[in-house]
Specification:
Low-confidence stretches of chain A: none
Largest interface: A-B, 72 and 71 residues
Structural class of chain A: alpha/beta
CATH topology of the largest domain in chain A: Rossmann fold
Keywords (chains A, B): Cytoplasm, Glycolysis, Kinase, Magnesium, Metal-binding, Transferase
Order of helices and strands of chain A: EHEHEHHHEHEHEHEHEHHEHHEEEEHEE
Number of helices of chain A: 14
Protein name (chains A, B): Pyrophosphate--fructose 6-phosphate 1-phosphotransferase
Mean pLDDT of chain A: 94
Distance between the termini of chain A: 32 Å
Radius of gyration of chain A: 23 Å
InterPro entries (chains A, B): ATP_PFK, PFKA, Phosphofructokinase_dom, PKF_sf, PPi-PFK
Number of strands of chain A: 15
Subunit structure (chains A, B): Homodimer.
Cofactor (chains A, B): Mg(2+)
Shape of chain A: elongated
Oligomer: homodimer
C-alpha cells in the first residue's frame, strides 16, 4: 500500500490545534520507515481539492515545527467545507484521484464535529471502493461538545483563558467597591455551556464572583434573572455574571434574538447585539444599577497567553496517537480520551468510531447545573480543574510572543 | 516632624499600579529609621476621609506584599474623587486633621491626571498652612498621557497586551484566507492614541496586519476610511483595522456618537454602541464584505497575562524613588521618567512639579502619524518597543494566576 501521509485542519482555530498538527507531523517523521512523505493540506479539504499542498519535513529542519507547537490558530489554514451526503457525488472520485496522485496511505484531519463528518464520509467511501487509505480524526474544539471522549483538546486552554479573564474582569470591577455594579460577561458556546461553566473555576469562596452563571442547557427566564441579580447585589456589591452566548428561553429563541427584532441602525439593518448587551440594557432599565457587558473576544479560542500545559501536551499526544493507530490498521476512527478511575488525574488514549461522533453533541449534564440554572456544581469543578493545570512557556521575540507563519 | 507614611491608589486600574504600591511600601519599610508606620488608604482619599486605613507591614510578613507586585488592579481599591478647587473648603482641614491623627509625614498617591490634581491641591494647602507633610505623586495610566515624563507605568504592559491580542485576532482572522474579511479592533483611548498606536508593534513586514490604524489625534473621515479599507483589501484579504475608541471628526463629535443618535432599543433607550460597531455596520452596508468588530475588554488595562518586565520594574522603582524624594525633602512633585540619550534604552528617575502636570494631556505627536492619519511611523515604534520588553512570571495556584486579595 501507499504510505505517504497527509494532514489537515478544519473548523475554527483553537490555542492547541497546532499542537495536534505538531503531534501528527513529528510522529510521522519519526516513523520514517513506515511513513513516506508527510504533506499538509492548506485550507483543509477545500484547499486540497484546489491543489494546495505543502511538504512538512522542511519545517522540522527550519525549527518551525517546534514553533508550531505553541502557535495558536490553524497553521495550515482552515475551511468550512461539508462533503456531500451522497457518496456517489463526483467530488469523491476526484479527491481519491488526488490521494492517489500524492501516494497517500494515511489521512489525518484535526477538527470538531464537522471535521469528523468529513473523516466519516471519506472512510465510508474508501470502504465502498475498497481503497486502503486509512482515515483518522484528531479532535479539537473549545466547545468540548464531542461525544465518546472525556474532553477535547482546546477546551482546557480556552477554559483557562476564560477563567483567568473573568478573574481580571472581577478585579477591575471591584476597585470602586463602595458603588454597586453589575458586569455581564458573555462567553462563547451556542449550544453547550462547557466554556461558560469554566468561569466557576476562579471562585475562591462561597459567594465570590462570578456569583451567577447561566448556560444554554437550561431555559433562561429574564424575570428570574432580574430576581437573581437583585438578590446577589445585596451581598456582592460588584457583581459579575457569566452567560453563554447561546442562552435561550428553552423553546428555541436565543436571548440575543429578543433584541435583534427591535433596533434598526441608520443603514436600515437590524442591530445584532449579543445576549450580554441585551441583558445589560434590561438590568439598566429595570434595576437602575450601574451595569456593563463584556463580550470576550476571539482570543478565548486562540490566545496563547493562557495555554494549559495539560491541554497542549494532550493535543500533541492525540496527534501522535493518531499516527500510531493508523499504522496499526485503524480507519474511520477518532482519537478519544478516557479518564482513568482513581484519585489523581490520568487519561488513556483510545479510538472511537467516528460515525458515532460526527452528528452528536455533548452538553453539560443537567445535574451539574445548580441553583435553578444560575450556578455550577462541584462535579464540574472536579471534572474541569485538572484540564487547566500547568503553564507553558511561549517563545518570545522583540517583547511579543513568537509564532510560526506559513510562508 | 511626623514620619508615618500613607499611600493610596486612585483612578482606573492598571496591570502595574500595584507594583508601584509595592515599591512605595517596601522602600518605606526598608527605611524604618526614617519612616514610621506605613499605612494604606483604602479606596483612595475618599476612603481615607471615611476612616478606611490599613497597616501595610503585616503584608510583608504574610508574603502578600510580594504577591501584590504582580497582582493587577488596585489592591487598596480606588476612587474618583476630585478635591474642591477652593482651598478654603472645609474638606482640607478635615483631611489634615486625619493626617495629624495618624502622624503622617509622607503622603504618596499613585494615579493619573486626576490623582496628580489631588497631590497638587494637598501640597498647596500644606504650603498655605505651613504643614510639613510632603506630598508625592507616583504616575500610572495606560493612556500614557501625562506630560513631563517620557512615559507612564502601566502603558508598557497595556501596549504589550494590545499588541499581542491584535496579533492573535489577526491569526484568528486569517485561517480562512481565501475569503475576504475585515476585522475592526477598538482600543481604549478617548483623547490620546498611544495605546492604539501600540498595535503597530506586531507588524512583521510592510503590509502586514494591522494595515490601518486610526488615532483620535487626527480628524476621522468615514469616506476616506472606506476608501482606505477598499484599497487595503486588494492586497490583504483578511484585513485588520485598529481604531481608538475616541476617533472623532476633528470638530468634537466622536464616531460612536454618530450611531447613538439613531438606534433605540426596546426599553426606549438610545443604543450606545462603540466606534467599532458603527464602522462595522458602515463597512457592511457600503462595501458588502464580511466584517466584524471587536472591543478589547477591560483586561487591556488590568491583565497580568502580558506584563512587561520593563514596565513592572519601572513601576516599582518609581514608587521607591518617590519615598527617596520625599525623605530628601521634596513635596508637590510627581516622579517622572527621563529617557537617556544614546543607543540602548535607559531611563533616569526625576521629580517634576505636579502643578505643571495635573491639567495637561500629552497626545501622540502628529508627525508620528503617517499615511494621512491611517498609519503610525517608525518614530513611535522606536519609542514604544523598549517599553514592552521582558516577560514576568506570575505565581500560579490551581492552574490560575495567584493574586493578592485585601481581607
Amino acid at each position: 500500500m501507499k504510505n505517504n501521509v497527509i494532514v489537515g485542519q478544519s473548523g475554527g482555530p483553537t490555542a492547541v490545534i497546532n499542537a495536534s498538527l505538531y503531534g501528527v507531523v513529528s510522529e510521522a517523521l519519526k516513523r520514517a520507515g513506515d511513513c513516506g512523505t508527510v504533506y499538509g493540506m492548506v485550507n483543509g479539504i477545500e484547499g486540497f481539492l484546489n491543489g494546495q499542498v505543502m511538504e512538512m519535513k522542511p519545517l522540522e529542519e527550519s525549527g518551525d515545527l517546534e514553533l508550531i507547537r505553541t502557535t495558536p490558530g490553524s497553521y495550515l489554514g482552515s475551511c468550512r467545507f461539508k462533503l456531500p451526503e451522497d457518496l456517489e457525488d463526483e467530488v469523491y472520485p476526484k479527491l481519491f484521484e488526488r490521494f492517489e496522485e500524492y501516494g497517500i496511505g494515511y489521512f489525518f484531519y484535526i477538527g470538531g464535529n464537522d471535521s469528523m463528518d468529513t473523516v466519516s464520509k471519506l472512510s465510508r467511501y474508501a470502504q465502498k471502493t475498497e481503497s486502503e487509505i486509512r482515515f483518522i480524526g484528531v479532535p479539537k474544539t473549545i466547545d468540548n461538545d464531542l461525544v465518546h471522549t472525556d474532553h477535547t483538546p482546546g477546551f482546557g486552554s480556552a477554559a483557562k483563558y476564560v477563567a483567568s479573564t473573568v478573574r481580571e474582569v472581577a478585579i477591575d470591577a471591584s476597585v470602586y467597591d463602595n458603588k454597586k455594579s453589575v458586569t455581564i460577561v458573555e462567553i462563547m458556546g451556542r449550544h453547550a455551556g462547557w466554556l461558560t461553566a469554566a468561569s466557576v473555576l476562579v471562585r475562591k469562596f462561597e459567594g465570590d464572583n462570578p456569583v451567577l452563571i447561566y448556560l444554554p442547557e437550561t431555559a433562561f427566564d429574564t424575570e428570574k434573572f432580574l430576581e437573581d441579580v437583585k438578590s446577589a447585589l445585596e451581598t456582592t456589591p460588584n457583581l459579575v455574571v457569566c452567560i453563554s452566548e447561546g442562552i435561550n428561553d428553552g423553546k428555541g429563541t436565543f436571548v440575543c434574538e429578543l433584541e435583534s427584532s427591535v433596533g434598526v441602525d441608520n443603514f436600515g439593518h437590524k442591530m445584532l447585539t449579543g445576549s450580554g448587551k441585551y441583558l445589560e440594557n434590561l438590568v439598566k432599565a429595570r434595576l437602575g444599577v450601574k451595569v456593563r457587558s463584556i463580550e470576550l473576544n476571539v482570543c478565548q479560542r486562540c490566545s496563547s497567553s493562557m495555554l494549559s500545559a495539560t491541554d497542549i501536551e494532550e493535543a500533541a499526544a492525540a496527534g501522535a496517537y493518531g499516527v500510531k493507530a493508523a499504522l496499526e490498521g485503524e480507519t474511520g476512527k477518532m482519537i478519544a480520551f478516557s479518564r482513568k478511575a482513581g484519585d489523581g488525574y490520568a487519561i488513556e488514549y483510545t479510538t472511537e468510531d467516528v460515525n458515532q461522533i460526527c452528528n452528536e453533541e455533548k452538553t453539560v449534564p443537567l445535574e451539574w447545573i445548580t441553583k435553578n440554572g444560575s450556578d455550577i456544581g462541584q462535579e464540574f469543578i472536579d471534572y474541569a480543574r485538572p484540564l487547566i493545570q500547568g503553564q507553558v512557556d511561549v517563545p518570545s521575540e522583540d517583547g511579543l510572543p513568537k509564532f510560526a507563519y506559513r510562508r
